[in-house]
Amino acid sequence: MMNVNLLRHIPKVDEIIKNKAWQDVCEIYPEAIAKDALRQYIHRLREDIKQSKVSSIPSIEEIISHSQRIAEKQVASGLKRVINATGIIIHTNLGRSILADSAIDAIKNAASSYTNLEYDLEKGTRGDRHNHCLQIIKKLTGAEDALVVNNNAGAVLLVLNTLASGKEVIISRGELIEIGGSFRIPDVMKKSGAILKEVGTTNRTHMKDYEEAVTSSTGLFMKAHTSNYVIKGFTRQVSTEEIVSLGNKYNIPTYFDAGSGLLYPIMGKDAPDEPSITEEIKKGIDIISFSGDKLLGGPQAGIIIGKAAYIEACKSNPLTRALRPDKFTLAGLEGTLILYLDESWARQKIPTIRMIFEDKEKLRRRAKKISREIKNLKGLLTVSVIPILSEVGGGSLPDVSIPSFGLALEPEIGIERFEGRLRNLKVPIIGRIEKDRFILDMRTIQQEDETDLIAGIKDALFEDG
Ligand SMILES: *Cc1c(COP(=O)(O)O)cnc(C)c1O
Asked: How far is CA 236 from CA 60, 202, 315, 387, in A?
């Protein structure tokens, strides 16, 4: 039965907004937004009282804090910091790579001051934004020339449109890839104006398949890295060297979409299937494109490198204006690439690379430390430290899993409820459910995340709204 008395005890809006906590809310949200959220909360509270769902009136502070959450949901449900406990290092849904400090500093610099983005400081004349990462990319890859665009999908579109619009592009059937976010080679090809000429079979393609497809309309030989799958067993793909020899024989340009790509063979034998950009360039391919925010560990970008004449042609394509990178991309990319000048810097300072190489004993110790802090929540949670496998993700190294350590949590409140609550925390925690346990992989949890992680797990265990 409804408690009319209780309704009368809901504090008046005038009274609530005199509270100090209300002033704090109004520092974050405009007063009109905060008041609207407060009215919504009070309306909800009234309804709950009428349906006898509530038996006492929350304190003014609690009312304000609930209202703040409503305001938050309405205006700031945008980009949030989350804790990646999935163990997937380049997690496309969680923003792929996190950046090195030098990249962050460079972006901050570009954001807070005017820059020489398109100004030549030596000559005092208009400059070209495309010159910014140029020297370092050339130095690191050994390529003649380079062009940075918005992302690798844009790079593929631009290369195909520049070199093969109205012409045929010969590519193996086994390489007609689809990656997440509806990027499919055949579709991009169509949009670029190039004509797809697929050769060979899914598992096997030979030199002669390419050769037999050559006509006077052939504009390009293309290879695409099968980033997110492996074809195993009775397989044969034509190597970069073979494609290059075909290109030379028929005087047709050659292009390799490397997808993720390692800048150089930083992983030794651990990553046999991921092409290294420097090695591929040495083989004499005309153009390579790859992503900035996959294994490179930088900001979202598409990097096109290769022979000067072809890069020049891409630069002059009007599409380049639509695909051009912004100043933050260029700054962040340069701040990342600089670290590749020294392999030990790259391993230590680029988070993506650092996480791949992180020693699993260190991860086990961190997991133990956290487990000690949440073990005393007796009755609410069972915790164990377990060996697990991490993935690189982001369409790279599909066949590689890295031994890691994680926390396996068995919450009293039930696994689905727990998972949902972790996802809705102020700093959401994203992990995975496996056999009725919630698994947190230490490999992708940053050291700076640990305090929020522990607080978040505790929050999620207690009853609250
Ligand atoms: C990831 C990928 C792309 C798209 O790159 P984005 O940087 O995500 O636009 C294109 N081709 C291949 C082979 C890829 O793996």
From this structure: 70, 9, 35, 36
Sign of CA dihedral 159, 165, 171, 174: positive
Residue ranges around ligand 1 (CB below 6 Å)? 151-153, 156, 177, 179, 183, 224-225, 227, 257, 259-260, 291, 302, 395
- Read off the pLDDT of residues 26-83 as tens digits, 9 standing for 90 and up: 998 999 999 999 999 999 999 999 888 888 899 999 999 999 989 988 886 678 899 9
Task: Return residue ranges of the chain for CATH 3.90.1150.110.
Answer: 83-92+355-460
Tens digits of per-residue pLDDT, 156-193? 999 999 999 999 999 999 999 888 777 899 999 999 99
Compute the half-sphere exposure of residue 114: CA atoms within 13 Å on the CB side of its CA. 4
Helix (H, G, I), strand (E, B) or coil at 125: strand
Please give the distance, rounded to the nearest whole angstrom, from the Cα atom of residue 259 to the centre of ligand 1: 4
The reply to whether CATH 3.40.630.10 applies to domain 101-349 is no
Which residues make up the CATH 3.40.640.10 domain(s) of the chain?
A: 101-349
**Quick one: tokens of 83?**
């804790």
The two most distant CA atoms of the chain are separated, in Å, by: 91
Where would I find the beta strands (DSSP E) of 187-315? 195-199, 218-224, 254-259, 287-291, 302-306
How many other CB atoms are there within 10 angstroms of residue 263's CB atom? 23
Identify the residue whose C-alpha is closest to ligand 1 atom 1.
259
CB 440 within 8 A of CB 410: no
Burial pattern 242-252, b for ≥16 Cβ within 10 A else e, equals: bbbbbbeeeeb
**Residues contacting residue 312 through CB under 8 Å, at least 6 positions apart:** 145
CA of 22 to the centre of ligand 1 (A): 47
Q: Are strands 437-441 and 287-291 parallel, antiparallel or unpaired?
A: unpaired
Which of 93, 156, 230 maximizes ligand 1 atoms within 8 Å of its Cβ, making it the mutation to test the pocket?
156
Tally: H helices and E strands in the chain = 20, 17
Give the predicted TM-score (pTM) of the model.
Answer: 0.89
CA distance linking residue 88 with residue 119, whole number of Å: 40
Question: In whole angstroms, how far apart are CA 365 and each of 183, 371, 439, 442, 448?
Answer: 40, 10, 16, 10, 15
**Helix ranges, 92-184 (H):** 101-112, 134-141, 152-164
Domain 83-92+355-460 - what CATH class? alpha beta
Q: How far apart are CA 354 and CA 297, in angstroms?
A: 10
